[in-house]
Every structure is written in structure tokens, then in C-alpha cells.
Write the C-alpha cells for this entry.
Amino acid sequence: MKNNQNTWILFAIIPLLTLLTSCGMMNDSDTSNNHEGQAANAQSSNWADAARKAMNTAEHYKDQEQYNKSKEYYIKAAEYFEQANMPSWTVQSNIYADFIDTDVTLYVEQPVKQDKNLGKFEPESGTYLGFFMAGSRETNRPDLMDDIYGRNHAIYLTYTKWGQHYEETDSYFPLKFAENAKKYQAGIQIGFEPSEGLDQVVDGEYIRQFAREAKESGVPVFLRYASEMNGEWVPWSGDPEKYKEKFRLVHDIMEKEAPNVAMVWSPNFLPRHNIDQYYPGDEYVDWVGTSLYTIPFSHGERKPGGNPIDYLRPIYEKYSHKPMMVSEGAVSHYSYELDEDFSEWAASQIGNMYGFLPRMFPNIKAVTYFNLDKITTNYDNQNNNYDLADNKQVDKTYQRMIQNGQFIDQLTVEGAKTTIETQFLPVQEVKQVNGEHDTFLYVKLPEGEQPYYVAVYQGDKKLGESYAQPWNMRIDFSKVDPNRPLTLIAFDREFKRLATEKVEVSF
């Protein structure tokens, strides 16, 4: 969805909390004639008051950089908000806990174990590279992608509105866009938007012709129908039952008319308390996607602790029985609100998004970068710049990350031919390992801080080290004593320890 989904993020939650005691969610006047209602509302008010106090305490400890204590109180606040039946505030409190959390985990390469049937166009392993070609360099031209970024991409993203007609090809389906992608052995993703609301979605000549033309295109089509439905910024939000009815209708038509179309159900990563109610059912969904944006500043507050891995995790845990994709996602390297550059932070978040995320979440089978400077648009907020062309550091990081053999850069209706036969598991889950293996160290520090250097030790013996995200290293496990813990360390530029984690192994 090209309208900005970040508007929901309630980064102003702390100031707003002071208003809770005077708003309707915390008084019982509406139930004055009902004793049971009074008691329930009073109890809710007590829980909300406890949540407010926990949030204030968490903020105090965060200001003192006592992050473990701060996280403890953010989690308490989330528990209290849940008791008060305030789900969106519950989510936000957990997000704040994520912002200041520390995670240091060693991942070890292991053979892939396939024990499921693959979905439509799903590769056995690996991740399709996807791209929205709206930047100042590529301007919707797939023929330029290899020269600019050092690789072709397997999926190109476009948008169409329900009822839109393409005069150049006299079609309802974006045939010209599909033809250009097909020349470079790429599929397409379509953000399919009923911009006048769900009532316009009916079975008729338009959607039937659209489906027939989709089949005629001869390319793999990921049809992302009415995405970000969980956000109030889209006109198809607010009625989950009608949404599911219309999604199923479009699915049934595509199944009959266009076998090269995979239906993608794709909420935004926030709000997440209402996502499940929009799910049409496994039989109607081929892929589950999500919009996933990481920005450094929103609603008057700097929040550099945002991390696409944390944002994705709750959705992944719920829906990874399906092949999944980041349908559209990006990292802002410049805030127009602040008139401030965030190059170093943004480069590290690109590292999270491309260096770690697909390897930590192996059912993420596609990631599409939304390459656009929002200031060039005339819709929604124009606060962030995602265009890689405008930032050499972020651009270089993106190009370096996508060279990884994990990524797949071609796709036809016959599917992707992959030779990737390994996956990465946390070392604690590895039961058998011998000899040398590729590994990486995932490091997340409070408020988005990044290490300069990482190392893995056993006792005084250094097993591996790395100076560049995604902290790849090759470790000889024949030299590891399985009866002794490993020590994982992240250092700053002065080689001061930022984080230390001891890990017991069981191989």
C-alpha cells in the first residue's frame, strides 16, 4: 500500500498515558445503572492505572540506561494493559520492551529438512529478491536492475486499482509491466486495491477479464489483494467478515481463470491486535505477506530501537505454516521532519532486513524493497526517504547483502530452480555438528546500537570473529568441547564489551 502505514504507530504513547484517567476507557459512568458493569469497569481502571505507573517506571529506568529493569516494567505494563482489555496498548508496551532488549545468538548452518508440501511458486529454500522500481535510478525499468544493484530481482512490484484500465494494452491487467518482467525471468507482485471500498468488489466482467489477462501474461503473479486491511488508513478496513467474503470471491475467480496467480494475504505489521480477524482461511491463502517499514522518527519521538526482525516475529510465529513474504518493506535513511540523516542506523537495519531476517525465518521466501523517496509523492505523509540512490552507505549495504547465495533472482511459471541445501539454526538447537561450518552472530542492542566487532570464544580460545554485519564467520566445531559453554561477545570501536552471552551446547 503506497499510503503510509506508519501512521498508526503510537510512538507518543507516554504523553498520552497521562490522559487515560480522564478519558472514557477509565471511568464507569456509562454503567452506573449496572452493578456488575461498574465493578468490571472499576477493575479495568485499576489495571490501566497500574499499567500507567509501570510505563512511567520503565521510562525512568530507560533514561538511566538500566535496560533490563526497564524491559521488565514495559512487560509488566503490557500484562496490565491486557488485563484492562486495551490490546493496542498491550502491543505498544511490548514493542517498547523490544526496543531496549539485548539479543546475542549464534546461528549454525545445517542441512535443509523439507517435510511439507510447497505452496504455489514457493522455492524449496532461499528467498526471492523483490523490488518496487520507483527510485530515481531504475524508474520502473527491470533492464537497469543488474547494472545498478549487481543482481536481477525475481519479483517486481506494481499497483493497480479495482476497475483500472490500461489504454496502452487495452487491458485491465498490467500486461506491459508483466511483459517487461518476463523478459528478465521475473514474476510480478500486484498491490490490488479496491480504492472505493469492498462493496465495489463483485463478480463481473471486469474481474473475469482481469483474471483471463493475468493468465495470458504467462508470468508468475502474486496478487496482494486489499492489503494492510488491519489499518484504518485503507478504505477496505473495518469490516472483517465482508473483507473475508470478498477475498474468497477473488480467490475463487483466480483459481478458475488464472492458475498462474498466487493469492497473497498481507496485513501491515501494525496494528497487530486485530490481524487474525481478517484471515480468510488456509484454503484461500497461497502466501502470507506483511508490510514492514523501519523508521527512526515518528509522532515527535526518536525511536531508533525499531527492528524489522522484532516487528515480523509475532506474525511469523502465527502464520509460517504458509510460505511468507515481506510484501513491501524499507528502511528510512532520512527524516524530513527532523531534516536529519540516519545513514549509519539505516545501513544496520538493511543488514537486519537482508542479512539476518531471511536466515532466521526460513519460511520468509520473498522480500520486496519499496524503493521510493516519499517527498516526491503527493499522497499521505512525505516524511521518509527510502530511495537507495540517495544514500551511498545504505545503497552499498543493500548491494552487499543481496549478493548472498540465499537470495534468488529469477522466477518463471515453472518455479525457481534452487541449489540451496542448507539452513541456519540457533546453536542451542543443533544436535549434531562436525568439522567446519558457516555461522553468523545475530546481535541486537538497546535502542538500535550496533557493535564494531564480534567474536565467539570457548574459555580463552577464540573460535571465530567478524568485523562486518551480518557477522559471518566459519567455525571449526571439531575444536569445540560440547561440555563447556560458548561465550558470544559484541564490542564497540574501543573494544569495550557491549554484550556478553554464555551459551550451553548439546551436540
About this structure: Confidence is low (pLDDT under 50) at residues 7-33. The longest helix spans residues 35-63. DSSP finds eleven helices and 22 strands in the chain.
